[in-house]
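Re: acetyl coenzyme *A structure - here you go.
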Amino acid sequence: MSTYSHIIGTGSAAPERVVTNRDLEQIVDTSDDWIVRRTGIRERRISSLERPENTAEMATKAAREALEAAGMEPDELDMIVVGTVTPDRQFPATGCMVQTALGAGRAAAFDISAGCSGFLYALNTVHNAVRCGAAGKALVIGVERLSSVLNWEDRGTCVLLGDGAGAVVVSAGSDNGGILSTHIRSDGQFWDLLYAYYGENHIPDSLDHLDAKPFKLRMEGNRLFKRAIGCLTEIAVEALEHNGMTSRDIKLVVPHQANIRIIQGMIRNLGIPMEQVYTNVDRFGNTSSASIPIALNEARREGLLTPGDHVLLVSFGAGLTWASAVIRWSMEAVLSEAEDAVGCAINQAPAAIFPGP
Ligand code: ACO
């Protein structure tokens, strides 16, 4: 019998502090009008270390909400996979910090670095682990504290990015559906279009790097922009074709939230109306690995997903990496089936314990 991988819980978390475009006008030469017109971003969340809202904390909060939605205890998890490029420590993995914070003692935990595609790369890993029987229940988390690598003097990047976390619980099941396929791609020849300079103790390999600020993000936005729309379209089409679908079969697209113009460009290519696309880039900016699971959680909570709906997830980011997934939404159906099974087991228990004469 085939094993399928179903999303049975979603959650998200974001720092409390809201930084608006007007706030940024105070620190760099920019304007609300420019940011809104070029990106669609109006505000973003920026973490505070006092609360604390570091990477592991935000990931744990999102994971707890996803586990609660799934009605699951952390010690049922076999695997925790975290997509992030902004861990609190170079090592150990954020996944291990989340594991201990949750009390998920049985789980194998590790991180994946795939730029803004980190969540879909992690979902791909878990989907395949579940399908081949290596894991029965797993957490997939996308989390970033991009504010920790931002150069707040660079108007070309500091207005774009934000902090946050999203998580899904994936469970093995025998019902056909859930995650139908995942697709991942990369092209390392463009790695230097977006990167964070590496470490306070880094020994510069040329004099050009001597003035570099440690851990600061550098980006060639315009060149990224041009590649993004093509790569997103390509991997979305690959996912649809793999499942014998056309864009008409998709109920909702949940894309990486980098820039509304990138999303519109891809959607135009796919021939899908914008009403069928979930966007929250105006409220969160680009949260890299966290953007898709935050958006998916919001879409679920807003009642936009019903069992049987086909959902397309699609991302593009540093690496370069790009990725997609097609899901036949099944969360509520799987959970109600599990509830019925528990009810059945309880109803049958007395007969089994006290067999008749
Ligand atoms: N405020 C005002 N002016 C600005 C700002 C700002 N915050 N930032 C740049 N400008 C200026 C530039 O200096 C430039 O001025 P100039 O013409 O006098 O030299 C002008 O605006 C145009 O700059 P471009 O970089 O050509 O503007 P573009 O239309 O490409 O928009 C942007 C820039 C928003 C960064 C866009 O390229 C983009 O979104 N790229 C993708 C970046 C991204 O999201 N990266 C993250 C990961 S990859 C991904 O997720 C897709």
